[in-house]
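FAQ

Q: What does a record look like?
A: Structure on top, sequence underneath. For example:
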C-alpha cells in the first residue's frame, strides 16, 4: 500500500516565482497535488475560478471560517486567503504530496497543527530582481507592488522558521532542487514511523523467540 503523502508548504515573497515553479513541478511529476486556496482578492487577467483560486466574497470567506472549512487562513495586504480542508486531507490519504503555496502566517499555523509538514521558502537572487519580476509580471498597480515589497521586508524576518530555503535564479534547476528536497524528506524517521514501528514489533518477536 502506498504511504500517506507529505504536507508541503511553499512560501516566498510576491513575485519570486512560486506559481511558475509549482506549475513546473506538477508538469514534471505526478506525485504532487496543489491545493487551491480561497481568496477575497479580485482575479487577475488570465486567472481561472477553481484553478488559480476560489474567488469568494468577504461574507462567504467569513462563513467558511465559521464552518471550520479552512485548514488555515490569513490576511495578506488587505485580503483574506485560506486553504480548504477537504481536498488536502483527501489527497494526502491517496499518497500524494500536497503543496500549499501560502504566505508566512499561514505557514506557521500549519507547522503548529502538523509538526511533520515540510516548510520551504523560495527566495529571489536579489531584491532588485524581485522588483523586476513583480513589475515584469504586469498584473498589479505600482501601489500594490509597493505594498507587496514592503510586506516582503517583514516576511524576510521569518525565513529561519522554515526547514529549507531554495533560490529561484534558474527555473529548471530550482524545480529539481525543490523536488530533491521533498524526495529526501520522505526518508526522515518521523515520516517513516509506520515502517519503523512494524520493524520494531517484528524484532521484539524475534527476540522472544516467537
Ligand atoms: P509568485 O507566484 O511568487 O508571486 P510568479 O510565478 O507569478 O511569482 O512569477 C513572477 C514573475 O517572475 C513572472 O512574470 C514569472 O514569469 C517570472 N519568473 C519566475 N521565475 C523566474 C526565473 N527563475 N527567472 C526569471 N523570471 C522568473
Ligand atoms: P497572490 O495574491 O499573489 O496570489 O498571493 C498573495 C500571497 O498569499 C502569496 O504569498 C500566497 O502564497 C499567499 N496565499 C495564497 N493562498 C493562500 C492561503 O490559502 N493561505 C495563506 N495563508 N496564504 C495564501
Amino acid at each position: 500500500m502506498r504511504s500517506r503523502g507529505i504536507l508541503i508548504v511553499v512560501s516566498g515573497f510576491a513575485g519570486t516565482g512560486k506559481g511558475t515553479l509549482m506549475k513546473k513541478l506538477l508538469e514534471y511529476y505526478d506525485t504532487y497535488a496543489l491545493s487551491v486556496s480561497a481568496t477575497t482578492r479580485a482575479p487577475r487577467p488570465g486567472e481561472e475560478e477553481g484553478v488559480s483560486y476560489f474567488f469568494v466574497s468577504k461574507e462567504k470567506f467569513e462563513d467558511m471560517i465559521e464552518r471550520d472549512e479552512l485548514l488555515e487562513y490569513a490576511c495578506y495586504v488587505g485580503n483574506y486567503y485560506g486553504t480548504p480542508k477537504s481536498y488536502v486531507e483527501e489527497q494526502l490519504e491517496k499518497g500524494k504530496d500536497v503543496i500549499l503555496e501560502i504566505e508566512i502566517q499561514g505557514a506557521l499555523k500549519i507547522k503548529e497543527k502538523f509538526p511533520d509538514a515540510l516548510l520551504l521558502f523560495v527566495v529571489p537572487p536579489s531584491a532588485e530582481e524581485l522588483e523586476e519580476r513583480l513589475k515584469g509580471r504586469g498584473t498589479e498597480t505600482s501601489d500594490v507592488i509597493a505594498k507587496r515589497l514592503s510586506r516582503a521586508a517583514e516576511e524576510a524576518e521569518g525565513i529561519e522558521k522554515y526547514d529549507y530555503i531554495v533560490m529561484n535564479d534558474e527555473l529548471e534547476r530550482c524545480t529539481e532542487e525543490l523536488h530533491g528536497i521533498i524526495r529526501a524528506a520522505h526518508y526522515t524517521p518521523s515520516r517513516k514511523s509506520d515502517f519503523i514501528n512494524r520493524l520494531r514489533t517484528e524484532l521484539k518477536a524475534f527476540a522472544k523467540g516467537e
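Q: Is there anything notable about this one?
A: Strands lie at 7-11, 32-34, 38-39, 54-55, 70-76, 79-84, 97-101, 118-123, 164-167.
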